[in-house]
Design a protein that fits this description.
This protein has 279 residues and is α/β, with parallel strands linked by helices. Helices cover 34% and strands 23% of the residues. It contains 10 helices and 11 strands. Strands 7-8-9-3-10-11 form a 6-stranded mixed beta sheet, with helices on both faces. Strands 1, 2, 4, 5 and 6 form a 5-stranded antiparallel beta sheet that branches. Helix 3 crosses helix 4, helix 3 runs parallel beside helix 6 and helix 4 packs across helix 6. The longest helix has 18 residues.
Length: 279
């Protein structure tokens, strides 16, 4: 995937507001983290790639996905891209799963929409995917409704639903934010195994710097709708930009001193092209 100068604008004229400004990046078969404060435009990028922002104006010099022009693609074409080739794992399964439909049927439907096959085949694929995301007794869980499963299990169901069509790219929007530490590590392990075994491209949207440092290959730091720094995840501790260093310094540390955490300073001069920032 190659993105050049992606912009997302809400409203028109004097009331227009740019939520994302001139964002550029490339995604291979790797794990790319996008981090920043709430409102920095992280989730907006994920939805813009799938054209899931009907009230916004999306522009870009280039939005290419393996030869497909996402920006110029018709809605009919995007229906073949969403799910089948690019899937998005949403943040909270409680608001993403259909409350009146069994979770297994929802996973099977995700497969059937993109693959012509019999109902039995879709069911078998759904059961296999439930097992792949390490859910015990998939036959029993298949029959449950969303309110009958825990938050961690619901997140695994969401992952299974997004992976069953066998996409090439996964956009994970805060996939572990509602989970406790133990379940979070299991879910990340599942994603890591699937990315490595299937050679997928993963965009991990998060506000957790420690998570992306330990899980991702590269990281984009966003501030006010713009990428201010891009660097390998392993080098996050050596970030040069004041904003990135401020985010790192504002994190509480177990065993650290008990003095007040520094207040994150914001500067209008940060709103400049990435090439100038990293020069």
């Amino acid at each position: 995937m190659e993105i050049e100068n992606l912009c997302v604008t809400y409203g028109r004229g004097a009331s227009a507001m740019q939520a994302v400004r001139n964002v550029s990046f490339r995604l291979g078969r790797e794990r790319l983290g996008i981090v920043g404060e709430s409102g920095s435009g992280k989730s907006t990028i994920g939805r813009a790639l799938l054209k899931l922002l009907p009230t916004a104006t999306i522009t870009a010099d280039r939005m290419d996905f393996e030869g497909t022009d996402l920006l110029g693609a018709s809605e009919r074409r995007m229906l073949k891209v969403r799910g089948a080739r690019i899937s998005m794992i949403l943040q909270d399964p409680k608001f993403s799963l259909n409350p009146v439909q069994r979770v297994g049927d929802q996973i099977a439907e995700a497969y059937a929409v993109h693959h012509r096959g019999k109902r039995r085949e879709a069911r078998l694929k759904a059961l296999a995917m439930l097992e792949a995301v390490q859910i015990r007794d998939p036959e029993r869980v298949y029959q449950l409704y969303p309110h009958e499963i825990s938050g961690g299990m619901g997140q695994r169901v969401m992952i299974a639903m997004m992976l069953v069509p066998e996409p090439d790219v996964i956009i994970a929007d805060e996939p572990t934010s509602a989970l406790d530490v133990t379940v979070r590590m299991k879910v990340l392990g599942i994603l890591d195994d699937l990315v490595r075994e299937r050679g997928l491209g993963l965009i991990m949207i998060s506000h957790d710097l420690n998570l992306v440092r330990n899980f991702c290959d590269r990281v984009l730091i966003m501030y006010s709708g713009q990428v201010v720094e891009a660097l390998p995840a392993s080098e996050l501790g050596n970030a040069r930009h004041d904003y990135t260093r401020g985010l790192l310094a504002a994190q509480p540390r177990i065993g650290g001193d008990r003095s007040p955490l520094p207040v994150l300073r914001r500067d209008e001069s940060w709103k400049r092209p990435l090439a100038e920032v990293n020069a």
